[in-house]
């Protein structure tokens, strides 16, 4: 029981969060000498900041051909749209799965498939609510295209949100990633769009909670596989 509680409380933190937690902690220390109620608010804010940058261990599905969620959050949209030209995926509509992350979700982003990063394009833009459909076109974003060993291409777009003001990407064009490997994060609330290859059906539904590195979004080797509970 004690070990299980420690695993919940002592979650590892990503290195990107260290300076922010240090800033929150320093401000909290000053508040101790200003007014005690403010000090306790500062303690709560510091704990929240630590958990925002948490980087828990995930159990990555090992079956080849699976597309797994690159983000923690809620599946907010599933629709067929023409992908952004930044992804280099052509002008044919593809199924886009959007995962919205609120400020309480883990924000470390993971590769949805194993493969090579063949394209990265960063665009400056607005900071609209990331849950809105138009955020895909107007918000600040970072687009990656990953090509699997079988030649399938998956588009992944990190989108800044209303509160998020910083997109971080750890990889470069030419980087080779394993499925579930960390490739970036977005600070303080945002969204990720995943573009599936033509003809591949999503295995999640709008409103479903997704876990980065674990939730299966699609199966490239069985593109017509249906979502659980949906008759074929």
* Backbone shape: elongated
Structural class: alpha+beta
**What Rg is obtained from the alpha carbons, in whole angstroms?**
19 Å
Low-confidence stretches: 1-8
Distance between the termini: 43 Å
The chain-level mean pLDDT equals: 83
- How do the strands line up in the largest sheet? 9-5-6-7-11-3-2-12
SS summary, helix count: 4
* Helix/strand order, N-terminal first: HHHEEEEEHEEEEEEEE
Strand content: 25-35%
Kindly state the percentage of residues in helix.
10-25%
Total beta strand runs: 13
Largest sheet: 8 strands, antiparallel
List the SSEs and their pairings.
Layout lengths: L1 H8 L8 H15 L3 H17 L13 E3 L4 E9 L12 E8 L6 E3 L4 E9 L11 H4 L2 E7 L5 E8 L6 E3 L6 E2 L4 E5 L3 E6 L13 E2 L5 E4 L13
Antiparallel strand pairs: 1-13, 2-3, 2-12, 3-11, 4-10, 5-6, 5-9, 6-7, 7-11, 8-10
